Amino acid sequence: MEELVAEFAKLPGIGRKTAQRLTYFLLKQPREESARLARAVAALGERVRACSVCGDLTESDPCAICTDPRRDAGLICVVEEASDVAAIERAGEYRGRYHVLGGRLSPLDGVGPDRLNVATLLARLANGSAVREIIVATNPSVEGEATAHYVERTLRARSPEVAVTRLARGLPVGGELEYADGETIAQAFTARRQFPGA
Ligand SMILES: [Zn+2]
Fold it and tell me: I need a surface site. Which of 15, 66, 141, 151 has the fewest CB within 10 A?
């Protein structure tokens, strides 16, 4: 029990008290319930991995979005984390594809450009690609903005024929895409803009 409480307490937003409540709750459930939870947790590590094309989390590689012929292959939306893909998909507005950077530039935490999945993004724009526009949808935070500008500069230097846009400012400054409602995300896509000086 102590071990499970300690594991729950490591999860984001879960303090020790909640971790204890969850553990007691599971104890009171039929055994099949906790077995199901254990299997789902184990399957996360075994079956879920990053898509080799876009970096989103998936059980099949390439992922369902990369292989869906109804999604516009000319549009790539660049996000920080896989959870941002889920948030944009919930909004239901966007019909292109994605690229997950796997983080944001943060010099204080030692996260430089080499730690982001930018090389794989450039590879997707190599000769003969159908991509016409890259929509940079990093978070409206200081690190998110710095990341957006880094991605924009890199893309412009390597693939000047591809348009690079940024989500509009409907998103709260300092907020996180993951927690924005669908309507706000949909509006930010519709009103996306050129980078200044582009
Ligand atoms: Zn993919």
Answer: 15
